[in-house]
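Posting this for the archive.
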Amino acid sequence: MTQLHPQFHLAQVNTARLLAPADDPSIADFVAQLDRINALAEASPGFVWRYVSDTRDPQDREYPDPLMLFNLSVWQSPEHLYDYAYRSDHAKVFADRRKWFEKLADPQVALWWISAGHIPTVKEAKQRLATLTFEGPGPRAFTFRHRYDAQGHPVEAKKPAAGGVTPPVPAVVPAAAES
């Protein structure tokens, strides 16, 4: 069961590559929703922090490709992040993502536990995406589908429960070894 651990928070990074420049009319619906969706995140239960940059300045971009978008935030728990991402108005934007973004081969989302009060860096977030890409899910970088708790143990629930708390998962009893 995932519990709130006041000494740990959940960091998340996600990336996406636009199908066209942000000022292209085909991307206008997405751009028009950004401020509202970011404000929704910041007002959501369990929200802790969000990375903000001025990506119009090429020197401040996280990636040299101007079509790549970068999002980094910190939450109290996987349940809080999941509620925001998939159970709020953000879910509609997420459902429409293929209108605006390419489907990329590498993982676009990585989650990892941090000490409460730590602010993850862009470099750290990129390293977690690389870890997930090259090693797969584990305690250092994971996904909602393959989660780990703050102590590094796998979590069996496939989707976090609503309301910031995961219900207990029944223990799995291994089958008896055949003789």
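Helices lie at 28-43, 78-87, 90-95, 122-135. The longest strand covers residues 8-17.
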